User: Fold this.
Amino acid sequence: MPDFLRKFIGLLLLFATVGIAACQAMLVSCSSSLPAISSILTQ
Amino acid sequence: MGRLFLMTSLGLLVLVALVLLIKRRFSLMAERYQGAPARFPTTKGLMLFVLPLPVLFAAIGALGRGNLSNLFDNAVCYGLFLWGALLLRRGLRTEADYTRRQVAKAPWPLKTLGSGVIALATALTAWSSAQYSLPIAVVFGGLALLGCYLSYGFDPRGAKRFTDRDGVDTTDRVIEALTQAEDSIAAIERATRDIRNAEFNSRLRRIVAQARQILAMLEEDPRDLRRARKFLNVYLDGAKQVTEGYAKTHGRVTAPELEDNFRRVLTTIEEVFTEQQQKLLETDVTDLDVQIEVLSTQLKREGVI
Assistant:
């Protein structure tokens, strides 16, 4: 496999796994805080 | 949801392609403008410090909400990501040193360890913070490990050994001599920072540059080590001691004689280092001459010339 392609696939995998897991963790954290924020706003 | 994933994947694909293109463009520009290749590419491995940043934001969010367990999960995951990235970067640096040297011991498997820690952090983040199921989290970890391997590779195994003309393995001796010389150069550089004199600083910078060039020549061909023994044991060590002594003393005592003596010593050191460098180059030329002579004699004997 050419070096460039190997690195491209490697970077893609890292973006896909680390990036998605980290963003999903942030989304879960934000979504659990949304009801609290909305309840504060409605009050 | 499916559409969102498709869009995210497409975005990631474009982002990765852009990053690779920019890196390629930068390295081409650097090659054009740089005389000697850099010792270690400074940006390599930095991406793994940036990618897990959302986990840090999640931890901050959890702190804001006062959710202790969520805060703990995210903080541990982010800590693991950071530790893995640091190990990987240190591994890349030791690998660059290993590649540069002709004689070297096999480095510690820091890159492999770092990749393992990053894979563990990814799996843990996917399972505990992102709330994926355990098998999916394991798949995340495995793919992250594969990604690290494909992007950065694993550590080189096996020492680059060196045997002298008598067939004796002198790897340890060569590595020890080169490490000591590097330590001496680093000590001269440290002492230079304490000397507040522009002339001496520039002279010392030149001396350090010369010493590094000589060391690079010795690293390229450790057979020269025997010829450069005096340079390593006497001159370099002496230069280190004198510079350290002057750096300590000149702040407390103002003596013009001391400055003159130090200037004279630095001039001598510069001359000796230039002489040493010339000697090593001449040896290379002599070796090449002998090789050419041997080859031409052989060709004459076989009737080719």
Notes: Chain A has a mean pLDDT of 81. Chain A touches chain B at residues 4, 6-30, 32-33, 36 (CB under 8 Å). Residues 3-42 of chain A form the longest helix (40 residues). Helices of chain A lie at 3-42.
